[in-house]
Amino acid sequence: MDLRQLRQFVAVAEELHFGHAASRLNMTQPPLSQSILALEKELKVQLFKRTKRNVELTSVGRQWLIHVRQVLDGANGLADTAKRLSHGEIGHLRLSFVSTADYSVLPDIVSRYRAAYPHVELTMREATSDIQIEALLDEEIDVGLIIAPNQASLHPTLSYLPLLREPLVAAVPTAWVEEQRVGFAGSVLEPADFFKAPLIVFPRRAAPAFHDIVSRYFAEHGMAFSTYQEAIQMQTIVGLVASGLGVALVPQSMTNLQRRGATYLPLAGHVPEVETGLAWRRSDQNPALDTFLAAAIPVDNK
């Protein structure tokens, strides 16, 4: 059976007259009758009761008509579905993001995208930049929000779009601030005071770009770089700071994460910046990716 036969069945079922149905289908009656007979033979079910004077649907025919109409409605919508898929209006997009993005660009991007394309299935997962790069190369995700990589080290099959540059601030234990009598919320922290405390930072394998920014800051001040504790989630780092284990350098947007026992202080002098952006495969032909990239760029940057 094919869609042609199903449409012929519906025409006969609605007209209950082979001649009228044939006229409606722009064909002659004999081929239509033969086609319906062939359909019944294939199904091994009688769909119509035929007499010389009238045509009626059998009980099975009446019930099957409901299902056939559903199939045809779906088939008729396939062309529109293909068009919407090609325009990125429906489909599936897999997004991954670093933990810091959840406190900066991610909420606005996702909000804009969902408002513009509510019928695209968007799946999200949190991961460090290195895991995201591997997932992109393995085609496990479509786009990633990552800490800006060194352009020389960016894989040649990937593209990168910067979204946000922001200064680093010091996350320090509130008790440490009070004990050291250095700075208070809203004041500026001298680098020399920051360097006195144990450092908590991302492991380099997980966030090489961010790790290098922090180590370079130490080198610029002639300080030996030594890590006291590592953690791969920024929320965990802030939690460790709040517990009094040490201090950390975090993106300014992390001040949106308020933790009892942790204080954020701006740093005096030259302050390093960290960049967050989008990475994706150059060869990716998913239309939903194109619409996502368009939605991710703020209006004032277009």
Automatic annotation (TrEMBL):
Q: Which PROSITE patterns match?
A: HTH_LYSR
Q: Residues in domain HTH lysR-type?
A: 1-58
**One Gene Ontology cellular component annotation?**
protein-DNA complex
In alphabetical order, the GO MF annotations are: DNA binding; DNA-binding transcription factor activity
What top-level branch of life does the organism fall under?
Answer: Bacteria
Q: Which UniProt keywords apply?
A: DNA-binding, Transcription, Transcription regulation
What Gene3D superfamilies does UniProt report for this protein, alphabetically?
Answer: Periplasmic binding protein-like II (3.40.190.10), Winged helix-like DNA-binding domain superfamily/Winged helix DNA-binding domain (1.10.10.10)
> Which Pfam family, any one, appears in the UniProt record?
LysR_substrate
User: What SUPFAM superfamilies is this protein classified in?
Assistant: Periplasmic binding protein-like II, Winged helix' DNA-binding domain
Homology family: Belongs to the LysR transcriptional regulatory family.
PANTHER family assigned: HCA OPERON TRANSCRIPTIONAL ACTIVATOR HCAR, TRANSCRIPTIONAL DUAL REGULATOR HCAR-RELATED
Protein's name in the database: LysR family transcriptional regulator
